[in-house]
């Protein structure tokens, strides 16, 4: 079992070849700080709106290193947070309009992937949320009724027999289906999007940690970027920027993926539609059937660390792996003997600079894949020299 190494998705695709970092001061019209989905989609649509605009994306690792390249692979229409809270502030019609835009966005992403030739294992067959215990059933019904109230009129309630036509889960009592969701391979999608953005003329600077953002100025160890407009798209890594330590709380979420499962097991489970999967437990759970016949499943509930620290190179704890294994076998008892092939979580800060660091090539056989000590892997460019990845400080001895 491999733990960490960014994510299973990158183990499938391989790490991308890094684009050059910033080399001296630079002036640009728009500087987008952060090369994940937020930053890349921003750059994509800015260039679509004004092809003459000079747009620069700055990323301290490689585009898609963070949550964008290690998430659950849900392209979802779900509204983040509480629709009721939004309605109290903006009114019911605003929430309904937001839901319509979220539904449209799923199709828009699929359309862009098709236009740009991005092959990301996309299957739009919606998601299933299930109750597989008596305590979950009223929560499931409440969630279903609320979603319909806030614009989800095409949700379908599924009795246990109807659910079994799609997916046979042990002890499942009921479920509902939302058609506005697609399975994606997140690393393939974000890497393809980065290539598409670059092809439109956007400058992407990788291995370039941003240390501070001020009006009209982005500071890095390699020079200053001056821009008329700055977009901070750092998401969970915002706390690493000067003055922003408590602005944004990094959210922990961890996943495991099985080995490819045999055909006879898939015949027992069904899941031929390859819908995304969640349940009505208190601990948030999500899963997918991957394009190569695995189950990738994860959840939130990992204890938050003091000071909002992030994880180490995608590593997750043994306790979390065991908890996720229990979730997997609780839903799919037939997977009890299946090998867990890979586990991963969020990102970690470089011990020298506070910037994340990861290997661009697999570690040698002499280095454990879960050994992320500063001196183990990747090695510095020279003894006592800069870190081979963030290139801006000497690793600790």
UniProtKB/TrEMBL annotation:
InterPro entries: FAD-dep_OxRdtase, FAD/NAD-bd_sf. Residues 367-376 have a biased composition (Low complexity). Residues 29-357 form the FAD dependent oxidoreductase domain. Pfam families: DAO. Gene3D superfamilies: D-Amino Acid Oxidase, subunit A, domain 2 (3.30.9.10), FAD/NAD(P)-binding domain (3.50.50.60). One of its GO terms (cellular component) is cytoplasm. Residues 354-381 are annotated as: Disordered. PANTHER family: FAD DEPENDENT OXIDOREDUCTASE DOMAIN-CONTAINING PROTEIN, SARCOSINE DEHYDROGENASE-RELATED. This is FAD-dependent oxidoreductase. It comes from Streptomyces violaceusniger.
